DNA sequence: GTAAATTTGTGAATAAAATCACATAATTTT
DNA sequence: AAAATTATGTGATTTTATTCACAAATTTAC
């Protein structure tokens, strides 16, 4: 078993554990993680149970050990290289985003069709689309971020797929479909905004 | 009943319907919407049923009428004004994001503590935090986007809450909690990346 | 060293969400 | 205008996810 929201929760537990670690905590209880992430304690324990993450009865979880186990499940025990296609406002923001600094996530290059954006001297190279397939092969990149306008999304997707990319985080406002070859995670900003608007307008509390 | 994923699906149906409308389609079937959004046809109909959105037996849904009903539910029948706090890379990208152009979402001002960022002449004003509360009152803004670094998130949240903001889309890597006064929708980019990494590493298809 | 206290881990129970399946309504065909 | 066809709409069923509740393990107190 392994659905999306369960994995999202594991990430949150990890973030909560990291925060506690930075405050010099050595151990943490399911109760603490539940408070920090807004779920129930038994949910935390059930999630751990499903991924064979274990602690000590009465002693809680050793934070260091817990983080190791969570990072193992989440694949964060090794560097994850991403390329980014579409160096517009959002693309550039993601390339410069500081939030990944401590994590094992790295955007290794950006690609665009606009020559004005190419840059072979920057910290993160910005290259023409022609070099996409070659770069992916040479650098053994499996993951991509798609931040192109709606109209170009399908074409860019096809190129990424042809070049052997295995996973795509799609910010373009077009829903792309996962298949055996490529896993797509669609993240539509307008949809997220609309969701908030709905809950504010109806004054119901979202139940996630 | 009204959980987050059901509302997210309604947004997707709406986007699919919009796309079909732009191709001059006049009607659409639950089957079409299902294909376009990656769910089952009965899911589409069940979602509609729950929000009393109805079509014509044998005739499907009139797109124009369907959009009206969806926009009513999603609160997109009127302009939704947002302010944005934290004009960094991501904040600026959202301010300049073109994807909202056709929608009823508008970012009316940005706020920051850094005087270098203030701009009273730009299309979207960038103002000092001191003016936050006043602006919110004068312009009757209920919604906010939070794109500050982790360390400043709680303080900014408190100010927004005190100023009467009703809903926050939080991009800061700190989980803020919803309550009766403010609904928070947390959107943690690192978590989204990790989620993709997990499914690529384990080669399982996400079941959302 | 025994008893009391506390927290995990997980089957069992409950709740929630998705799918099925079919009666009902509308349209098209003949 | 009757019969055949095609979609919706929704109770019933199934599946999935969450919570409950308690035995097992460990720690602390006496």
Structural write-up:
The structure is a homodimer of 208-residue chains. Chain A is α/β, with parallel strands linked by helices and 208 residues long. Chain A has eight helices and eight strands; from the N terminus they run αβααβαβαββαβαββα. Chain A has a six-stranded parallel β-sheet, with helices on both faces. A two-stranded antiparallel ribbon of chain A has the order 1-2. In chain A, strand 6 (143-146), helix 7 and strand 7 form a beta-alpha-beta unit. The longest helix of chain A is centred in the N-terminal third of the chain and has 19 residues, at 4-22. At the A-B interface, helix 1, helix 5, strand 7 and helix 8 of A face helix 1, helix 5, strand 7 and helix 8 of B.
- The assembly state of the depicted protein chains is homodimer
Greatest interface and its participating residue counts: A-B, 66 and 67 residues
Largest beta sheet: strand ordering of chain A: 5-4-3-6-7-8
**Could you give the order of the helices and strands of chain A?**
HEHHEHEHEEHEHEEH
Q: What fraction of the residues of chain A are assigned to beta strands by DSSP?
A: 15-25%
Structural class of chain A: alpha/beta
Task: Tell me the Rg of chain A in angstroms.
Answer: 20 Å
Please, what is the average pLDDT of chain A?
94
Low-confidence stretches of chain A: none
Number of helices of chain A: 8
Summarize the amount of helix of chain A as a percent range: 40-55%
Overall shape of chain A? globular
Total strand segments of chain A: 8
The main β sheet of chain A shows up as:
6 strands, parallel
First-residue to last-residue Cα separation of chain A: 19 Å
């Amino acid at each position: 078993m392994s659905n999306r929201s369960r994995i999202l929760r594991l990430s949150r537990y990890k973030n909560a554990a990291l925060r506690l670690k930075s405050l010099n905590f050595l151990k943490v209880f399911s109760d603490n993680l539940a408070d920090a992430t807004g779920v129930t304690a038994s949910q935390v324990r059930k999630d751990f149970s499903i991924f064979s993450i274990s602690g000590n009865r009465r002693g809680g979880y050793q934070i260091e050990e817990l983080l190791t186990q969570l990072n193992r499940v989440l694949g964060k025990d090794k560097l994850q290289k991403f390329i980014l296609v579409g160096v517009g406002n959002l693309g550039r923001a993601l390339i410069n985003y500081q939030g990944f600094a401590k994590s094992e996530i790295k955007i290794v290059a950006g690609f665009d069709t606009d020559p004005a954006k190419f840059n072979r001297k920057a910290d993160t190279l910005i290259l023409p689309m022609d070099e996409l397939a070659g770069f992916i092969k040479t650098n053994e990149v499996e993951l991509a971020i798609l931040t192109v306008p709606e109209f170009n999304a399908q074409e860019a997707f096809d190129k990424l797929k042809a070049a052997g990319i295995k996973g795509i985080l799609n910010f373009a406002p077009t829903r792309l479909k996962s298949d055996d070859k490529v896993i797509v995670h669609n993240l539509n900003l307008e949809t997220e905004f609309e969701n908030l608007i709905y809950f504010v307008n109806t004054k119901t509390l979202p139940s996630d």
